[in-house]
Amino acid sequence: MHVWMIAEAALYTRLKSESVLYVDLALADEDFGDAYAWMRSQMALRLPDYEGHWPWWAWARPPCGHLRPDLRERQLYHNGWPAGTTCMRLELDVPDGELLLSDFDMWHAVLNYSPLVSSDEEWDAIEALPDPEQRSVKEATWPRLFALDEPPDPFWDGTDGQRTVQACFETLRLADVYAVTMFRTRPTRR
After folding, report:
1. Which of 96, 114, 153, 188 has the fewest CB atoms nearer than 10 Å to its CB?
2. Helices and strands counted in the chain (H then E)
């Protein structure tokens, strides 16, 4: 399956040198440690050959209904790096069995430690539970983000029917690189 990563160009330089890369945990955002650990547990459940490395993230179906990430979308792909940073959009052809696909918008429930529900009433019912029970009930709702064969949920995906799909995978291989587009970041429009 073709997926797209956005990263600093230095990553591609390393990939060309080493041919195979795994995520460097020292570069991971500490604020998302619990959410990433949960995603790793799901990769272990759902990907038969998963070895336990931290995931790479890519777009399987990018935002805004585009076929590939549109690099003019500054608010999506230029944030986090100083203006002028040399970056790249890597198009990868990763074997389907190595990818765990999920709904990008729903993923924010995991990041924010919120229940993944479809109504305010469901939300309120879970929030009314005592803390120990609330935790397990919230986490039990999260696997919904993998149900990509179900119709998009307007509560999370809006009403345009466009679902943004992210892909997690364990191994970044030079052999899987299909195309590279270099670009320099520009300031985000306000």
Report:
1. 96
2. 7, 8
